[in-house]
Amino acid sequence: MNGGSQSLSLGEAASRFLVSLPPEAREISQQEVYRFARWYGWERPLAELTAPDIANYAERLSLSDADYTKKLELIRAFLIYAKKEGWSKTNLAIHLRIKKVKSSSRSSPGRGLPEAISLTQQGYAELEAELAALRDKRPQAIEEMRRAAADKDFRENAPLEAAREQRGQLEGRIRELEETLKLATTIDDKQGGTSKVGVGDSIILCDLASGEELRYMLVNPREVDPTRGKLSSASPIGKAIIGRGQGEVVEVTAPAGKLRYQIKQIEH
């Protein structure tokens, strides 16, 4: 790693990475990659990022978003590129580990009925479609396990282990979706009567430090999709803006310091 790479700031590295992407991929990645850079400090040297920093970022996402895999993949691609370009000495991407949420953490015996889940109508329909698609994949997953198991050398049967893991992830996601849809109630997109930010609203925020405008739709953590601007109501920004009104300024605490946003527009 040369001297110039050692002093490369996180913001500059993020910008160079985005420029390297095709236009469509750049549009998908920009918001999350820039959020990562702002979280740890736009001017902070990328070379100062540590494995615990990256692990903590993954943990922060896992605590706020039930479905946060897409976010991690976008940041992982950035960190892999940084290593390839020699901007960091190690591949920090390996520390972005997906945390599995145990079903027991969602509801505990003796604590009453499970908590209701509020979803947008679009989000409910998308989860239904995902569930149907995953159920259709079951026969293929079973067949892949059968073919892998046909190899009698079980000592180092990597394909069998991979097939088992894939099947386990498939079944786990199916159970999660079934549970979510069973408990879900949909939000009426036309309901009004309040000028405050709530789940299902589309919001335009202005980053007061950079002047950048950020467009989000505030959703239940189970609907999160960073590629489409769907922000979790349980994320740090989501918690800061929910219940607040247009024109208000909110603060979010990040390792880089206080991030300040003004709520420019709310669409119910």
Write up what this structure looks like.
The protein has 268 residues and is of the alpha/beta class. Helix content is 46%, strand content 15%. The chain folds into 3 domains: 93 residues, DNA polymerase, domain 1 (Orthogonal Bundle), CATH 1.10.150; 74 residues, Transcription elongation factor, GreA/GreB, N-terminal domain (Helix Hairpins, Orthogonal Bundle), CATH 1.10.287.180; 66 residues, Chitinase A, domain 3. The protein is built from 8 helices and 7 strands. The strands form 2 sheets. The chain has a 5-stranded mixed sheet with strand order 5-4-3-7-6. Strand 6 and strand 7 form a beta hairpin. About 5% of the residues have low confidence.
